[in-house]
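Friendly challenge for the regulars: who can give me the structure tokens for this chain first? No prize, just bragging rights.
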Amino acid sequence: MVQFIRKQRVSVLILIIGILIAFSQSFAQDKNDEATTRTKNRYDSLWAIQFQINNNFTLGTFQGSFLSVLRRISPTSAWRLGIGLGFTTNDNDQNNHQVPDTTYRYSDNHTNSSQNIYVVFHYVKYFNIEGEVNVYMGIGPAVNFSNHRDDVENNTFKDSLLSGQKTITDSHSSSIGANGSFGVEWYATRSISLVAEYGATLNYTWGSSSSNQTYLHYDPAIHSESTSHSFNLTSMGVKFGLSAYFTL
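First reply, four minutes later:
Bragging rights claimed.
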């Protein structure tokens, strides 16, 4: 009888151990399925628009001043494109100002304009893709083109004598190089993630500047030109961003 009871206890113990093993395997499988599903969901969301979180918690573009878009091409890799565009024009006129109690009058007209385009293209590699936080690295080419024009005209009138000068300065700058980044991405939801990224750029820059200065009642005009060449390694610092994923 005692031997029978012992056999029963051993059988129950073996049954309990078997149940625990089966439960642990099932739990592990569920975790693996969850990770696989999470990874697949991220891969299915092929496109993302990225925004930078500024100091005052407003949103701007993450890479470039106009557009930053990312395309996942596999669970572990993506392409990212940043485009920056800038156009400005300023016109400051001060016409026919007279100094009190004198016959001296002057006018200043100052106009400047600039155009800028910046393009950076990254190949991004992801690590730890089954975790909640992904580590990634990106590298790719970066190019920049800019133009600036400054137009200044000064005229003075004193004792029936008019004098003046006009200066026009044109400058052009171009750069080409490589841009690299290292960051982490945390998925708050399937469609929204938060990003912290450090970046740096190594580029070669060349430019030219020309100036034409003309005087009223004086010839000839004064013309000058200059050129510049430089290598630059620039840290972009750490920036925080938000990615909104979607499918097309």
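The two ends are 73 Å apart (CA to CA). Helices lie at 2-44. Your move, everyone else.
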